[in-house]
Amino acid sequence: MTDTPLQKRADIQGLRGIAVLAVVLFHVSPAALPGGFAGVDIFFVISGYLITQILLRDMEAGGFRLRDFYQRRIRRLFPALYAVLAFTLIAGLLILPPKLLSELVYSQFFTTLFLSNFAFAHLADYFDSASSLKPLLHTWSLGVEEQFYLIFPLALLALHRLARRFLWPVLGALALLSLTLAQITTKPEAAFYLPTTRAFEILIGALCVWAKARLRLSDALRRWLSLLGLALMIASLILLNDRLPFPGLWALPPCLGAALLLLTHDGWCNTLIAAPPLTFTGDISYSLYLWHWPLLVYARLMFGDSVWIALPVVGLGFVMAALSRRYIEQPFLEKRLRFVWPMALGAMAVSIIVALLIFDAKGLPQRFNAAEQAAFAATDDYNHDRRHCHLGKDARIAYRDTCIYGDVKAAPAIAIWGDSEGAELAQALGERLTGASGRQITASACPPSVGYVIAYNRGCRAHNADMLLHLKADPNIKTVVLVLNYRRYDADNPAAMLTGLQLSALDLQASGKRVVLVYPLPVYGFDPPSQVGLAMRLGRDPAGVGMRRAQFETEHGRTISELDAFSAAHGLEVLRPSEVLCDAERCRVYQAQKGVLYFNGQHLSLKGAGLLADRLTISAPLPRAE
C-alpha cells in the first residue's frame, strides 16, 4: 500500500504478501487466524520505512518537491481505488437495501476525501449495521496513511533543513507519544481508527531507516534477528484476537517483527519470505486488499456467511487483483501522464456528487417492491429508547432511573434484567401488560451474571452488583426475567458467566422473587432484514432464511443441558426461544404472519421479541403491582 520508486527488495514484497494474506484470511474466518487484522499494522511499518527512504533520498539530493510526492501518491493509489469504488457502487445499486446503500455512499463520500477512518470511528456504535455489511470498511487504513502523509513530509523537511541533528530523536519521541495515546485511550473505536494512535506504527518503519544506516550487524546476528522477526509476526497473527485492546502495546510484536525483517535484508527468514508465491502476492497486495473485502461483503449478503462461499470469492479476488495490477495500476505507474491533478480532482468530484445524490434520495428505495421494502425496514424495528434506556459499555445508571414500560400509573412488578437481548423484550412485554408495568435493566455485553468480569464492559461487574441489590430490596418487583445472548460470551470465560448467572438466579429466588430464565436464542452471522429482502427479490422463499435446527442444537447443546439441570434442581421457570423461533427442521428469521423477526443478526426485532413476550404472558401469567 505504498509508493515504491526504489529498487524492490524481494523480501519486502514477500512481507507485503504475508500481511495481505493475513488480512484476507482473517476476513474469511477470524477463527482461522485470530490476529490476522494485524496484517494492516505490518503494512503501516513497511509504508513508513519505504516512504521515509524516498523522502530522505530526495531531500538529500536537493530535489524534493511536495507536489511531485503527492502526484506519485495519486498515481499509486487512485486508479485501483476508483475502479473498486465504481464496482462497489454499481453492485450496491443492484444488491443493497436502502439503508445499507445510504451507508455505502456515506462511506464513499469520506473514502473519496481519505477520511473514512473518521467516518467509521463515528459509525462504530450499537445501531450501525454490522461491520460485515460495510463494503468500504477496509479503506480506513488508506485514510490513516494519507492523513499521516499530509503532515509527515512537511515535518520531515523542516527537521531536515532546520534541526537535522534532532530529526531521529523527534521521530522517536513522536512514536512514543502515539503509542502512549493508543494505550491510555478510553475510546477503543478512536484508538483503532485515528491516525494519532496509529502513527507509531508508521514511525517504527521510519525509524528503521535510521537503524539500518547506523547499525552494523554481524551476519550471525542478522540471521537470528530475522528468525526472531518472523517468529514475532507469526505468533502475533495466531495469538492476538479482537478482544484485546488494540492498537497499543499489543501492536508492538507484529510491528517490531516486521521492523526486524526490514533491518535484516539477507537473514534466514528474509530469504524464506522472498519465495515467488509470496512476492507475487506482495506485488498485487494493494489491489488484493482493495478487491477482496467488497467481494466478500456482497457474497455474504447474497448467499450467507459460509467459508465455502468465502473461499471461491477470495479466489475471484486474486484474479481481480492480478488484472487490476496489470491493466490499471501499472499503466498509471509506468507512463508519464499529463493532467494527473485534473483527472484526480475530477474523479473525486464525480464520486462525491454521486454519493450525495444517492444519500439525499435515501438509498433509492424505489428499486424494490413493497414487500421487499417492508423486509428491509425491519432494521428499524427495535426499541428506539435504547439511546437512553440501554447502557453502553462502561456506563452506569441509578436503579430509579431505569426505564419503565406498561401502565405508567402502576409500580413495576416485573424486571427484564440482561444484556442487549433484553431491550426489545422489555418494550414488547410492556405493550402486553394490563394494569402493570415492567422495568428494563439492560447493558451492552453485560449478562445478568453477578461477579462476572468482561474486558469489553469494565463497568459490568459493578452494574450487576448494584442492580441485584436493588432488585432484591424492591418490594414491588415480583418477577425477574433473566435474558442474554449466550453465544456472545463463548470466548469470554463462559463457565464464569454461567456460574454468575446461576448465583444471580438463586439470590433473587432466595429473596422471594419469581425467576424466569430465558434460554439461548438463535443468532446469526448475517443481516436478517437484508437476507429476507434479497430472498424475496431473487424469488426465493424468505421463510427458508435461518439455520438448521441441528446447527442450533449443536451450538447451544451444552449450555442448554447445563441450564436444564440447574433450573430443574431449583424449580426455576424457563422460557425457550427455540420453541417459538424454530421448528423441527429450521430456526427461521421470518414468519409470513409476523414478518422479519430480527433487526440484526444478534437481536430480535420488536416483532420477534413480541413472540417471546406472548409466550411469557401466556405460559406464566405475570403479576400485577400491588
In words, what does this structure look like?
By secondary structure, the protein is of the alpha/beta class. It contains 25 helices and 13 strands. The strands form 4 sheets. Strands 1, 2, 3, 4, 5, 6 and 8 form a 7-stranded mixed β-sheet that branches. It has a two-stranded antiparallel sheet with strand order 7-9. It has a two-stranded antiparallel sheet with strand order 10-11. Helix 2 packs across helix 9 and helix 14 runs antiparallel to helix 15. The longest helix has 30 residues. It starts with 9 loop residues before the first helix and ends in a 7-residue tail after the last helix.
* Secondary structure tally, helices: 25
Main sheet: strands, sense, barrel? 7 strands, mixed
Measure the end-to-end span. 67 Å
Radius of gyration: 27 Å
Shape: globular
Strand content: 5-15%
Helix fraction, binned, reads 55-70%
- Average of pLDDT: 92
Class based on secondary structure composition and strand pairing: alpha/beta
How many E strands? 13
Question: Poorly predicted ranges (pLDDT <50, ≥5 residues)?
Answer: 125-129
